[in-house]
Amino acid sequence: MKVLKFGGTSVGSPQRMKDVAKLITDGERKIVVLSAMSGTTNTLVEISDYLHKKNPDGANEVINRLENKYKQHINELFSTEEFRQKGMELLKVRFELLRSYTKDLFTLFEERIVLAQGELLSTTMVNYYLQEQGVKSVLLPALDFMRTDKNAEPDLPYIKERLAQQLEANPDAEIYITQGFICRNAYGEVDNLQRGGSDYSASLIGAAVKADEIQIWTDIDGMHNNDPRIVDKTSPVRHLHFEEAAELAYFGAKILHPTCIQPAKYANIPVRLLNTMDPKAEGTMISNETEKGKIKAVAAKENITAIKIKSSRMLLAHGFLRKVFEIFEKYQTSIDMICTSEVGVSVSIDNTKHLNEILDELRKYGTVTVDHNMCIICVVGDLEWENVGFEAKALDAMRDIPVRMISFGGSNYNISFLVRECDKKAALQSLSDQLFNN
Ligand code: ASP
Ligand code: MG
Questions:
Q1: Minimum-distance ligand to the CA of 115?
Q2: How open is the CA angle 218-221-223, to the nearest 5 degrees?
Q3: Cβ(422)–Cβ(300) below 8 Å
Q4: Do 33 and 7 meet the contact criterion of CB atoms below 8 Å apart?
Q5: Which residue's C-alpha comes closest to atom 5 of ligand 1?
Q6: pLDDT digits over 302-354, tens only?
Q7: pTM of the model as a whole
Q8: Is the CB of 181 under 6 A from ligand 1?
Q9: pLDDT at residue 252, rounded to an integer
Q10: How many Å lie between the centroid of ligand 2 and the Cα of residue 371?
Q11: How close are the terminal C-alpha atoms of the chain, in Å?
Q12: At the topology level of CATH, where does 2-219 sit?
């Protein structure tokens, strides 16, 4: 069985929902994971924000606007009175629930319920539409099987067992529709897998049912070897190793949520990225196979801050790095890149919320310098250290660009450069020219 996930833009309008319905009805049994219609989760965040600020009028205004939009969607989506009615009843239930929070206490617990409404709406709508078209489709409620444990990590054995029961209970269905993103936590409360989490849901479901393939459908044409918005002449990458995809997903290539990689990788299930606007296109296949001797792609991540700690105390000392890292840990700030020398260490971070406190504590251990507005340029491919020539090629492309840090050897698939944001375009273009276009 395959697991197919469609993102917010792929179900972003009644017409798009109809396109998806057509795409998934080919007679093959499958599980279809849907996001909320694009924009809805953001609107639900806005509603929660008003409620946290104890402004029920503000919340109500946004709720009314959202409901009107959905009423139009229902009218456009369905062609029979029976299903229009069902659609309107769905809205009644969902929006009454939303309104109930304008009159009552609002905490993080209620917020998660509010955020879950987008996926509950989109999946029910598509399920009804399929049924209206005569397709044997059933809705599998994610809140009945998707669960996280006490460490907020997915509880795969539970997910496996519950999902198997639900599939067994509906043996005749052709299509199983379910919600991405939403889950219950270890205490049974409604929760979610964080923003953009629907890819993660699809990967977990794929792993749980031992799917043949997980397909992530977006409105972009697979992963490209560079950012098509920034450089000339990019081309789609046909195949990536999971680790290459993980680096790219984290460093800028928005197409796949980074958390999605692990469950599929461990279960050894290939993930295919496909384009709803061009369903016949080959897309990008991600698996545990490496293509030998190839550099695959380049991606960039902005808003990076570099911090250097230089200290003569580091010379011949042990435990220096631990002390430095503990400061970052204390302020829950994760480090992306690290470079060390015998007398100093440079790290890069993207979350500067506690920068001042961090710098303050670091100064106990050495002289600290900070560079803002930096950018990580990440090159992925078969970069195993025993291969010769690739690092040199990547470095050569950076010949005219001031490079603040270089990191190589952390994985077999990556070399990263830290440059100024203002040099990002030049760096990406030069890498593209040297690595892919000659
Ligand atoms: N609807 C959620 C979000 O917008 C989850 C997702 O689309 O993946 O973040
Ligand atoms: Mg080498």
A1: 1
A2: 95
A3: no
A4: no
A5: 196
A6: 999 999 999 877 767 788 899 999 999 999 999 999 999 988 999 999 999 99
A7: 0.89
A8: yes
A9: 67
A10: 29
A11: 41
A12: Carbamate kinase (3.40.1160)
Tokens of 392: 């040199």
- Of 216, 190, 221, nearest in space to 205 by CA: 216
What distance lies between CA 14 and its chain's CA centroid?
24
Closest atom of ligand 1 to CA, residue 199? 8
Which one of the ligands is nearest to 254 CA?
Answer: 1
Handedness of CA 422, 423, 426, 427 (dihedral sign): negative
How large is the greatest C-alpha to C-alpha distance in the chain, in angstroms?
79
CATH of 295-435 among 1.10.1040.10, 3.90.940.20, 3.30.2130.10, 1.10.3720.10: 3.30.2130.10
pLDDT in tens, 54-101: 999 999 999 999 999 999 999 999 999 999 999 999 999 999 999 999
What is 129-170 written as a DSSP string? HHHHTT--EEEE-GGGT-BB-TTS-B-HHHHHHHHHHHHHH-
SS3 34: strand
Can you give the residue ranges of every domain in the chain? 2-219, 295-435
CA dist 412 → 92, 337, 417 (Å): 53, 15, 16
